Structure formats: structure tokens, C-alpha cells
Amino acid sequence: MPKDIKVLVCGAAGKMGQSVVRAVDAEAGFKLIGAVDRSGNPNIGKDIGIICGINEIGVKLTSDLKEALSKLQPDVMVDFTMPEIVIVNAQMALKAGVRAVIGTTGMTKDDISELSKISKQNATGTIVAPNFAIGAVLMMKFAKEASKYFAHGEIIEFHHDKKLDAPSGTSIKSAELMAEARKVFGRDSVKGKETIKGARGAAGDGNIHIHSVRLPGLLAHQEIILAALGQTLTIRHDSYDRTSFMPGVLMAIKKVMELDHLVYGLENII
Fold first, then answer.
1. Which of the 8 DSSP states describes residue 264?
2. Does the pTM exceed 0.85?
3. Is 159 annotated as catalytic?
4. N or C, which end of the chain is more exposed by having fewer CB within 10 Å?
């Protein structure tokens, strides 16, 4: 009988981390063995199951990732922390021979390149995904296909007001994929003048304007608007609950067990 995949979650006491804990605990073939969060978290030492609103599961929240990796020897580390923390966590895990599934956004291309190098050096799989919702991944794939036929495009992304990075990793990845289909999208037809700086958003890959909205009441939403003479095509995805990301996270945990290098984007494994 195949053994369960042993999973350690970083950022386990956060909203995304708690969702991952609940999903892993409930899924056959997975075993949650470790939960890590920042030093100073008042829940350190408590059972992560109780913190997440499920039954006690015998896994205590700790702030010492190095000790947890060494002592518990997980197969996979799932990280939903912060950009400045995830790099250190991932380097530590990969050098210890532990595979990494990373959902933290805000990392730069240089960060991802560095992790790719370490992943390859250690022949240890890594999956970095800006968005784990299957619908969001399909939105990006559809937009890439449509970009062959539409010469103009813009992206509007909407997130909750606690999200730190802007634009979102999903919108950046969307622009990257669209630019693979069409190197440069149509530039503004006239040289505009912004009376308020940033009104036209930020120009991403392919000169695709990206607009970021941060408001309470939102979770994660995105519209990709493609345009041609006399018509527009709008592709939209909405995540109303963090459970929408969990099937993709579980899929990534399974897939990373087969990898010896870094894969960027869930679209490369579905």
C-alpha cells in the first residue's frame, strides 16, 4: 500500500494556512505532520487542529522551521507566508531534501530564478503557483489562446484589503502568458496624459495595463478584457472562499512528488 504524503505547512495559523491544514487533514493519502508560523504568534505550542476549528490532531504549532524539517522529515512543505519569508523557508526546505509547494505571491522573477537554481541543484521538486484555483488557471489559459486573435488587452484584479502585494501574482502571470501568444499588445491610440499618476494602471508584460483594486468584502477576482475593432471579450474568474484554492493545492502536493526541478504556474501540471 502506498504511504501517505507527509506534509508540513508554513504560515499554518494564517487564513490560507488554516485552509490548507483542513484540506490536508481531510484528504486520504495525505498526513499533516507539521505546522509552522511566525515567532511571537500567541498560538505557538497549541494543537493546529484546534486553531483551525477541527478536532485535535496531535500536531503542535511551532516557530522553528529548521527543527521541524530535521525532526519530522516531511515529504512536502506547503508555504503561504510572505515574500521575504518564503525565500528563506524554501531554501531551507530544498537544501534539506524537502519538496516545496509555494502559494505566497509577491516574489520577483529573480526570487523564482534563485529557487529554480536551488531546486535543480538539489534535484528536489518545487511548484510555485500565483493561483491554485482551477478556474483561475483556466482563465489564464483561455486568455492566452484568445490573445492570438485580439491585439489589445487590459487586466483588472480585485482583492481583499489585507493583500500586501500589487499587482497580484495572478495578474502578472496572466500578462506573461498572454505575451507568449502576442509579444506586444496595442499601445494606447493617443499619447495620454494622466492627471492623477497611475490612473492607467501599471504596464505588465506585452504592454498590458494591470489595474489593482483592494477593498474589504472581496477575496480574489480578476477580469481580463481583450479588444478588437467593434468588439470585446471579457474573461472573469471569482474566488468567493479559500476552499476554491484547495483542490489545486492538493494536486500540486501530489505532482511535486514526481518532480526534480521547479515548475512555475499550475497550468503546467493540469
1. E
2. yes
3. yes
4. N
Nearest Cα neighbor of 133 from 236, 30, 231, 44 is 236
Q: What is the pLDDT of residue 164?
A: 86
What CA–CA distances, in Å, run from 159 to 14, 115, 162, 223? 17, 27, 8, 12
What would the grid cell of residue 25 be?
487533514
Residue 1: what pLDDT?
A: 47
Classify residue 169 as exposed, middle or buried by CB count within 10 Å of its CB (0-12, 13-18, 19+). Answer: buried
Catalytic one among 120, 141, 163, 254? 163
Please, what are the averages of pLDDT over each run of 10 residues along the chain (270 residues)?
88 95 96 94 94 93 96 97 92 95 90 93 94 96 96 96 92 95 75 83 90 97 96 98 96 96 92
Distances (CA, A) of 97 to 91, 118, 250: 10, 11, 20
Distances (CA, A) of 236 to 11, 39, 83, 123, 171: 29, 38, 26, 37, 12
Q: Which three cell numbers stand for residue 169?
A: 501574482
Contact 33, 3 (CB under 8 A): no
Its CATH architecture, for the domain 134-239, is 2-Layer Sandwich (3.30)
Catalytic residue among 144, 152, 159, 173: 159
Please tell me whether the peptide bond between 2 and the residue prior to it is cis, using omega within 30 degrees of 0.
no
Nearest to 125, CA basis, from 133, 111, 115, 110: 115
